[in-house]
Amino acid sequence: MVFEGRFTVKVFLEFLGRMVRRLDGRKVFFIVDRHSVRKAKKVNDWLAEHEDKIRLFLLPPYSPELNPDALASQDIKRTSFVTEG
Fold it and tell me: How big is the CA angle at 17 (ends 33 and 64), to the nearest 5 degrees?
């Protein structure tokens, strides 16, 4: 799902709802980072109502070795691009 603007509880709940509807009754498991949106009360309440259809697993607070985005970010930060002038 592509969205404009900030990543909010509303955006995340829309994404989760779309996933649940598209999977036609199959349960989905998501491994996610600990962004504050993913830990919000509204998200937890929604997940409790849909526990038969979806489950989130939160990564440990700091675990770049488990998060592909963090690994890519680290790689980019370590690589220096030198241009000759």
Answer: 10
